[in-house]
Design brief:
The protein has one domain. The protein is 72% helix and 0% strand. It contains 3 helices and no strands. Helix 1 runs antiparallel to helix 2 and helix 1 crosses helix 3. It is elongated.
């Protein structure tokens, strides 16, 4: 897996988990969903994603070739 695919997977998993927790535990979990969405929004404009930064440092490949 590449860095981009891992970032998409983790973001999607966290969003689904926080929405489920907001339904079954407490509505304030939607704040975590908003945080993830804001992070994705800013990374689209700035190109900086904290998770991608750490994955690259860990040696995860950035492309499939």
């Amino acid at each position: 897996m590449t860095v981009d695919r891992i970032v998409f997977f983790v973001a999607g998993t966290f969003i689904m988990l926080s929405v489920a927790l907001s339904q079954y535990h407490h509505i304030y979990w939607l704040g975590f969903t908003a945080f993830i969405g804001a992070n994705l929004f800013q990374s689209a404009f700035t190109g900086f994603c904290p998770l991608a930064f750490f994955l690259k440092k860990a040696g995860v490949p950035t492309s499939t070739s």
